Q: What sequence folds into this?
């Protein structure tokens, strides 16, 4: 794969000391992360390390308890007013969420709608686009993900990989500033994984800004500009893929990479 070049140094996403707890369990313990427009950043780590929770906080599906997350310099979900943290109105939150696309582990397609109608729904209902324009946008993106001939098919008539590609088309069609991927291949049979990763690779090469959570380590290495290893709710190591995969400085990272059958040159063995 040819890794895309980052488009600009302007910060698009900034997370500062983000905390999140569920009851007495602190899941995020002060996450810092900065992304530039056109970058692909991947979060890696063991299950329970906080990767998905962080994505859900970025997309306002979960409320972070402390710190702040900014998109294009605009605080997401909250404002500081007279020194106190205040949640934005639902109208403002919805407007912010529309700027961030997310593709989930499960496809979350509406079973009673065709592939095309699934993609069109947000364009007409959320963005208010005329149906003719929405149809054109839908046809473009279904074509981009290789499903032009499946536009009239219902989810039950599509393979898992095809359904996930519809979900990707639905997210990208909304023209988000940032696209989040949460383990989008984890529910797929192994032979269908490559077709979905190919779509994500093509989006990366087109300059889409993406934040990925994935256990597809070779893909992460090839597609990412920056890799962040989370361990127990903290950033344990981050850097360029070559730094993270070839020179792990953290014992937990070394152990984590060692699970992948030695594909990173035996980094699982403690040096």
A:
């Amino acid at each position: 794969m040819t890794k895309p070049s980052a488009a600009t140094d302007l910060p698009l996403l900034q997370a500062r000391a983000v905390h999140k707890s569920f009851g007495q369990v602190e899941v995020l313990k002060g996450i810092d992360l900065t992304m530039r427009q056109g970058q692909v950043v991947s979060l890696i780590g063991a299950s329970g390390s906080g990767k998905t929770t962080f994505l859900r906080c970025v997309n306002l599906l979960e409320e972070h308890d402390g710190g702040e997350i900014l998109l294009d310099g605009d605080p997401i979900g909250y404002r500081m007013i007279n020194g106190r943290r205040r949640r934005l109105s639902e109208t403002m939150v919805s407007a912010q969420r529309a700027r961030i696309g997310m593709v989930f582990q499960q496809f979350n397609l509406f079973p009673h709608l065709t592939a095309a109608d699934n993609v069109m729904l947000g364009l007409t209902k959320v963005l208010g686009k005329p149906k003719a324009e929405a149809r054109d946008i839908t046809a473009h993106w279904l074509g981009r993900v290789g499903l032009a001939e499946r536009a009239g098919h219902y989810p039950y008539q599509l393979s898992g990989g095809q359904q996930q590609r519809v979900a990707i088309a639905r997210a990208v069609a909304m023209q988000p500033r940032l696209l989040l991927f949460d383990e989008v291949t984890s529910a797929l049979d192994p032979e269908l994984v490559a077709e979905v990763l190919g779509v994500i690779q093509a989006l990366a090469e087109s300059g889409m800004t993406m934040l990925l959570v994935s256990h597809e380590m070779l893909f992460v290495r090839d597609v990412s500009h920056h890799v962040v290893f989370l361990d127990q709710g903290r950033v344990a190591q981050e850097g360029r893929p070559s730094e993270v995969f070839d020179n792990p400085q953290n014992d937990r990272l070394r152990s984590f990479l060692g699970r992948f059958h030695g594909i990173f040159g035996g980094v699982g063995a403690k040096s």
